[in-house]
Amino acid sequence: MTQSPQPTRPAAILGGNRIPFARAHKQYARASNQDMLTSALDGLVARFGLAGERLGEVAGGAVLKHSRDLNLTREAVLGSALSPETPAFDLGQACATGLEATVSIAQKIRLGQIDVGIGSGVDSASDAPIAVSEELRGVLLELNRAKTMSQRLRAVSRLRPSDLAPALPDNGEARTGLSMGEHQAITTAEWGISREDQDALALASHQRMAAAWERGFFDDLVTPYLGVSRDTNLRADSTMESLGALKPAFGRGLSATPTMTAGNSTPLTDGASSVLLSSQEWAADHGIEPLAYLVDAEAAAVDFVTGSEGLLMAPAYAVPRLLARNGLTFADFDVFEIHEAFASTVLTHMAAWESEEFCREKLGLDAPLGPIDRDKLNPNGSSLAAGHPFAATGGRIIASVAKHLKETGQRRALVSICAAGGQGLTAIVEA
Amino acid sequence: MTDRYTKLANGPLKALVKTLGLPSPVPLRRHSDGAYLSEPVLVLGAGAAADAYAQILLDNGFEVRRKPTSEKLSAVLAFFDEAQEPTDLSEIALEIGGALRGLVRCSRVIVFSRDAHISPERPADTDPALNATRNGAVGLMRSLAHEMRGGSTANGIVVSDGVPMDAPSVVSALWFLLSSKSAYVSGQPLHVTTAHGEAATAEALAGAHLDGRLAVVTGAARGIGAAIAATLARDGATVVGVDVPQAGDALARTMNGIGGTALQLDITAEDAGRVIAQRVGEPIDILVHNAGITRDRMLANMEASRWDSVIAVNIASQLRMNTQLTEAGAWGSAPRIISLASTSGIAGNRGQTNYAASKAGVIGMVAASADRFAAQGGTINAVAPGFIETEMTAKMPTLTREVARRVASLQQGGLPVDVAEAIAFLAAQSSGGISGTTLRVCGQNLVGA
């Protein structure tokens, strides 16, 4: 293997745009992934005056994806105000799709392959793809191959009434059949995360995001869509009492008392987000002052199938590797943006990093990473408040945290997103 | 938004409209139909200015006639600048009258005169006869505008004493009034008060004369604001459109359509001017204060919130932004500030005490700000639209809307682009001699006449 001697250059985060996130089956029920992604791109194009410009590349993706959307991001670019000569590609890493898209663009910029690009993501839980059953699909394909009438009849004769039932997407893990919430309920019970802690985290998320909206923080991060101008899941008036009154939604079959509710878990959400990144030269040429820089990223995966680790615990493994590579400790960070798939996901990650045993046994560290100051955690709220349109969450977090660093003059942020399939993606953003 | 009557009166019902003597509006020529008409221009008057303008027109490719003629004409330029006594008006006035029947559709009469002093504050040595003559020329023009037919207009260019009759902005005003860009301006005197501004040819003003200029337009998401943004962009300006975050999607569409930049911002925010200066990040050459709201109520039923919000958006925000942008040193070298007033601010309108207070306030603001902007080579003016066909007027009761259309001399409503053209003209480098004024774009509506 040959080593590339090519030097890298910083990848600047210039800004972002997303549509307000809306709970599934509400305002965006009839909007497709392509519609929403196109709108998110158009808002970004307008914010930076890029109409008609050819960008280096646009990366994007969706978790719940129709088969017709094989070129989803390119189609969205073609429908947008960008130059039709802007290339695009789709990628997927479950809930980390948006972050992976942004990281991909950043790395291309760092390597000098492109000067400017957009990382994006979109998901609609409302306009979900519905497939035919495997059996019906087999029959239809065989029918297509059949050349004679008898071959056709033979193919059709295999069909059973039950084969006609449509296959709906679910968020169950392919290898365990358990939903993500049920998986997390097991981890939550193992780590003994309390209901109160989860509700308190959810409350803080709502309060901080409501405050951010109030002070206009999102004025240049969000563009209204279909009459929605704020995230519809946001409950500024949430209280510990209102959250405490909710009935458990997951873990009811476990021996431990169930603690996860609809209030401390993210709801199904529709939305799209985008992040504009470039080289420093491109930004200067366009008179744009970078908000921050995407410095490095690290992915991890865990063996959740055998049950040796929890489904959403991968970020706990990615973070120490990312820190080690960059010679950093928690003390070097001003902000921690940990995606709130469930309040207990964030809390188990933090508990794991504080646990001497976990850090020694599982991470092979001499000492625990240590605690995270709650004031530095998700300072403008996160997915529990905004909702979580899977592939759109990464873009929301990167744009928000970059602006937060710029606004506060703080130096460094750690970003962490857990994903289905036992995966996790983490990144460092620096001013 | 379609003016069905105008369509019918120019189509199947043409004969009936003529027989019954009903209003007969004609489709106006606009910039997209071409800037200038090709028929000759008749220049009336024997003085130096008339001679100079005959030459200027020739130099700019127009055909010129200096004597009444039986040919078809596209315009009549009448020079009263040397008239001393009211009796001096008659010769040229009657020559204009003789030429009217030879005018083609959408033609122009442009009356040149010197400024009369009609406010109580006037120079002590003002000659009553001279003043009467000068003001008489404006009166003639206003009445003639009412008599014009077939989409034609009459307007005046009033030049202050001490300013050469061929100063850059007098010429600039001529090109605007002569062109299809002034389609919905009629019965208006345009005051040129200084010799500032860069000379421009007729062709230059019809082209990308705002090339390289940066324009900020508030309330740019839709309606008149979107038309202003599009027109400034058409003329070469780089546009930053501002609107409230709630209108962000429409703003993004409008800006992407013209290659502009969207800035989601509530202009009533205490620091809006500073935020604009910081976000734009380069010198602002043109600022159009277009954002405005109506919250109509009879004064007897007026709630404080309705009154206050109209004042806050329509005038208080403009004053604050102007101050903050000046303090931030955000202006370009010869800035142009253009503010949206309204004929309601001139004539008043039932149910609009708050709106009229804000819009009359705009007229007062630009008059009082002219000297401050002159100090930095800039100008500040207002444009007062009359009945303009927008989403808002489309929601008016049918009869009210029909009346509002027909009481204008042009017998129809204006289009957002008509307001935008007047703003682009005031934003021109050649319009530096026009400041502190309010130009009405109302088709000479009876309201506020």
General description of the model:
Chain B: This is 3-oxoacyl-[acyl-carrier protein] reductase. The complex is a heterodimer of chains A (431) and B (449). Chain A is an alpha+beta fold. Chain A has a domain of 173 residues: Peroxisomal Thiolase, Chain A, domain 1, CATH 3.40.47.10. Chain A is built from 14 helices and twelve strands. In chain A, strands 1, 2, 3, 4, 5, 8, 9, 10, 11 and 12 form a ten-stranded mixed sheet that branches. Chain A has a two-stranded antiparallel sheet with strand order 6-7. In chain A, helix 1 packs across helix 2, helix 4 packs antiparallel against helix 5 and helix 6 packs parallel to helix 11. The longest helix of chain A is centred in the middle third of the chain and has 20 residues. The radius of gyration of chain A is 22 Å and the shape is globular. By secondary structure, chain B is α/β, with parallel strands linked by helices. Chain B has two domains: 159 residues, Rossmann fold, CATH 3.40.50; 234 residues, NAD(P)-binding Rossmann-like Domain (Rossmann fold, 3-Layer(aba) Sandwich). Chain B is 40% helix and 17% strand. Chain B is built from 16 helices and 13 strands. In chain B, strands 9-8-7-10-11-12-13 form a seven-stranded parallel sheet, sandwiched between helices. In chain B, strands 2-1-3-4-5-6 form a six-stranded parallel sheet, with helices on both faces. In chain B, helix 8 packs parallel to helix 9, helix 8 crosses helix 16 and helix 10 crosses helix 11. The mean pLDDT of chain B is 94. At the A-B interface, helix 1 of A face helix 9 and strand 9 of B.
